[in-house]
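Collaborator request log, item 7. Partner lab (contact: R.S.) asked for a structural prediction of Biotin transporter to inform their binding assays.
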Amino acid sequence: MKNTRDLILVALFAALTAVGAFIKIPIPYVPFTLQYFFCALAGIILGSKLGALSQIIYVAVGLVGAPVFTDGGGITYIFKPTFGYLIGFIVAAYVIGKIREKIIELTFIKTVLAFLSGLFFIYLFGVIYLYISYNLYLGKSISFYFAFFYGFITCIGGDLVLTVLASYIAIRVLPILKKAGYISKISTSL
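Returned to partner:
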């Protein structure tokens, strides 16, 4: 990390993702939360490495026992069917940040596409982990369609709304952060 400001921003996005875990709508199997919202903003604002680091710290803090996940915390959380989504947050923040770093002028549409690319990895890891966890170590046989339906279909609508909202916020906030010297190499326009 270059400086203290980066450290603070990484910690801030780790904390915001933790807060997002508690803003939830309970739906069967996979609750709808605001974790993805903050994960996406971490990637677009902090870039690939720092964005992913913020999510690694979030997951690490939860695994050492802090109750920052939707259902608590601790090392045994790796056995929860939804743990794959947490792995997906790390990958998503990295992918979103990497896309942001490659784009010369970041528009609303490009931001939406970057967020959707990250969201793809969240669902990829989440649905596969959900399927494997139920079938292998929870001892409940479920079909891949079941995992796909409850792990993707029931959740995607809310995350698409969050994608549009986060994209709008990112396009508005990034120029302010650039002007203040918090980020560089980014040009935005609606």
